[in-house]
Amino acid sequence: MTQKKLLTLVAAGLLVAMTACEKEKFDKQRYNEYVDYEFMIDNMDMSHQWQLTHSDTLTVKTPDAVHKVQILTDNPINTTNVEVAAEAVCYGNEAVLAYTIPNTQSTVYLSAIATNGNFLGIRKLTYGTKELDLTDIQQTEGSNINITTPQTFTYLYEENFPEPGDFDYNDLVLRVGKGYTESSYDLLLTVTVAAAGAVKQIAAGINLGGVSYDEVSKVEIVGGDIMDKDYPLPRRIMGSSDLLLRGRNGEAVVNLFEDAHWVLLSGSDTNGSITRMLLNTVRGETEFRSASVSPVSRTYRITFRHRETARLLSFDQIDPFILEEYNGSVWEVHTYPYKFNDVLKDIFRGNQSAYDNHVSWCIVVPQKDFRYPIEGMSLGTYNKENGEVFGPYPDFANWMKNHFSYNNWYTNATHPQLLY
């Protein structure tokens, strides 16, 4: 019997014991050794936080002519594909904004807009600036202002926590954009289900970063129905089709869907059955095994009871998560800062430290069109014995070894044929 097979059998037994509440039989060290052995990187940085972004808050003093301000990822006068990282209406000649940008980015642009929607001017500022005075801003005349779009991140999931998987991070791929309305109490989250590289049921929701259920007035879908409309089976994972759910500790949770396959295949399976196949992770189609389908998007308008909550909720606080079954229980897979949150399900039972390793089952990439690996292909691997680095994003392996470097790994794909 190989060492890898032995570790697999031992860890499986340990996990069964753990989920049966026989905590005295769970060996944390052996479990972590098992996860490390299955993970794609040898000698991983043990202090890794899996963060490709940083967030800050800015206070802006404005003249009467300025109705609202926006933090932009680039200068819209000179550049296309500019995203709105934050937006706030001014009150009492002041606006406060929270924003998130990639770690590799050190500057942003602040745009001032009049009540009639006219562009008044723009200022470049360095990340970390806490206050900005716009009271002397002069209107920019004759500038060609390019159209801006909501800032959008890509969320990549492994669907078998607490078991390690193949770490291709395509078992569910979500793209989440953050936008705004003219109401300071609203926040728009546009969620796109891009792929489901798994063959079991996956549900999903969004934890609003600890915002309480009572702080949210309502959640609505803009111009459409829920993603999993007419779902033919009992909603045994999310437990409800309500858009706003109360978490175990009183958190506000946006209910996205009960079943990713039903979302992506809805309209194809008209007899009430759900085909478990790989969707948008394999090139070419194989009947009943894989298919290429259109991504599905919905925009959720979240109305808060206080405008400060809406305008200060940065991307780093938003936690889209998935729910999947393992050993007769439903487990949650969160972004790394929220890895041990039991938002809807009481899984850890106060014993989160048993799974306190440095591996994440979710990667957040600050890019709206990130190309993820095809089925079974890890992002990037490193073998300490021969120094081999391989994968579509080899710099990912280097980032895993040292979180201070290669923070732009997701922009350097060297094997595009391995990406979807």
Please outline what is shown here:
11% of the residues lie in helices and 33% in strands. By secondary structure, it is mainly beta.
Question: What is the strand and helix layout of this fold?
Answer:
Layout: H1 3-19, H2 28-38, E1 53-61, E2 68-72, E3 82-89, E4 94-102, E5 107-113, E6 119-126, E7 131-133, E8 148-157, E9 172-179, E10 186-195, E11 203-212, E12 216-221, E13 244-246, E14 251-257, H3 260-265, E15 278-279, E16 290-291, E17 296-304, H4 307-311, E18 319-326, E19 329-333, E20 362-365, E21 381-383, E22 388-390, H5 394-401
Parallel strand pairs: 1-7, 3-8, 15-16
Antiparallel strand pairs: 1-4, 2-3, 2-5, 5-6, 8-9, 8-20, 9-10, 10-17, 11-14, 11-18, 12-17, 13-14, 18-19, 21-22
